[in-house]
Amino acid sequence: MKLYWCPETRANRVVWMLEELGVDYETVYVDIFKPARSAEFLAVSPMGKVPALDDGEVRMCDSSAICLYLADRYAPGELAPALDDPDRGCFLQWMTFAPGVVEPAVTEMLGGPAGDSRANGWGDFDRMVKTWEQGLGGNPWILGERFTAADVMLGATGVLFQRFKLFRGHPALSDYIARCERREAFQRALAVDRAGPRSLPARVQALAMGAAASMVWVRKPAYRLLDRLRRRRR
Amino acid sequence: MKLWWSPGTRAVRAVWMLEEAGVDYERAAVDLSEPRRDPEFLAASPMGKVPALEDGDVRMWDSAAICMYLADRYAPDRLAPAADSADRGLWLQWMFFVPGAIEPAAAEKEAGRLSVPRVNGWGNFDKMIDTWERGLEAGAWIVGDRFTAADVMLGSCAIGMRAKGTLPGSPVLEAYAARCAAREAYRRALAAEGSAAAGGSLGRAR
Q1: ipTM confidence score
Q2: pTM for the full model?
Q3: Where are the domains of chain B?
Q4: Among B47, B70, B85, B122, which would you mutate to test the A interface (most chain A Cβ atoms within 10 Å of its Cβ)?
Q5: How many whole angstroms separate alpha carbon A94 and alpha carbon B116?
Q6: What is residue B169's predicted lDDT score, i.e. its pLDDT?
Q7: Regarding the domain delimited by B88-186, which CATH topology (the fold level of the hierarchy) does it fall under?
Q8: Which CATH architecture has domain B2-78?
Q9: I need a labelling partner for A209 at 20 to 30 A (CA). Which of A53, B22, B85, B118 fits?
Q10: Cβ contact (<8 Å) for B58 and A115?
């Protein structure tokens, strides 16, 4: 099995997933800062995005889709509830929550005034956080006592945004993210990520991300204020 | 099986899916203009969004998750490739393409907001459209040579965008939207929408 990958990208959640499964895989480095992509890679990932997976006759991209595929294929009944398990519906819902709700809600919140929270499937940042916390409801994992691929997706997304301290005011969510980080498979994936090659632009971006992370606490309340003023004017 | 639904929303995807699967269900209308929601509905949909589904002990929301669930449960090997089939990976990829790429890219474009295409999973609007078109190069439907739940998800987006005029002059996607809209199950879902959607508001979500 071949994973197209680059350090400090969404590919790390698939490395984590593969480490949870304990299957053999090799990583193929893609320098995302270079515009050119190999034809072989583009055949697997038409948007030129990592991660992408080549597993024999299965070639696919998108981190959520890959994690769901891997769980169903290599750990059915364990990292993915079986198709006839009553938890299956809830599991799928949380699998789509990470890309479909958390990511756009955070991007919107960081990128400027909020969009139409009624029309958008992701509502807004506060509703997203509240729903996530309610879903956990004091349990260690999103489906309760058992760890699944949905925790890989939510945990990895959480770890990424926690670098910007976005969930600092939410202890239940922060605890959950820290619990995910303590998984052995997560730590192994982190080691893979740290040992990976870093081009100069990647290093510059990492520095810029660090700077941006420290500024979020200035930008977030500022945007909130702007948003409130804008709504009042309507 | 109960589907919480409201006309002119993403709930049409779930109705269409149920019609394709051919299972019995009842629709419970949710008044989205009313800020207070029925607690029974909120138990299935904590964000207060439609569609939401109640199927025995299963309570869930999110159109993509519901379509995946229904396909695997009620139309395996027909609307969803089996977990060990070669098409499974690609099918999942396209199921996630709607919430993960089309929707955020379209919303970003509509709001006139730009983020960094390298960092976002969805790239940008043009890249998303290009990828979608190339996915349809090989055949009439998005995965293999047959209609699946991924076409319900993508088709409802294509039809909705065509109605809103946001499908950029793409003959491939126009033809795909027309093909999807011609499905009998889709027509039944459209009839269920009632007059509210007759004006082409389909796909506009709340």
Answers
A1: 0.90
A2: 0.91
A3: 2-78, 88-186
A4: B47
A5: 25
A6: 86
A7: Glutathione S-transferase Yfyf (Class Pi); Chain A, domain 2 (1.20.1050)
A8: 3-Layer(aba) Sandwich (3.40)
A9: A53
A10: no
